[in-house]
Amino acid sequence: MALLLWTVPGVSWALAADSGGAYDSWKFNVGGDERFRTEYRNDFDLKDTVKDNATWFYNRLRLNVKAAYSDEYLNDKLVVFMEGLDARASDNKDFKGANAQKDDFDLHQGYVKAINVADSGVDIKLGRQEFQYGAGRLIAAPTWLNRVRSFDGGVVRYVKNGFSADLLLGYEVLYDTHKFNMAREENFLTGSYFSYQKNNIAPLLEWYYLDYTDIRGTTDTHRQTIGGRVKATIAPETMLDIEVPYQFGNQAGQDKYIHAYAAHADLARTFSSVMWKPKLALAYDQASGDKNATDGTSHTFVPLYQTTHDPYGLLDIVRWQNIRNPELGVTFYPTDKWSFTPQVDWFWLDNRHDAWYSSSGTVTRAATAADINSFLGTEISIRSVYDLTSNIKLEGGYAHLYTGKYLRSTAGGDDPINWVYTQMIVKF
Question: pLDDT band at 16, cuts 50/70/90?
Answer without folding.
Answer: very low
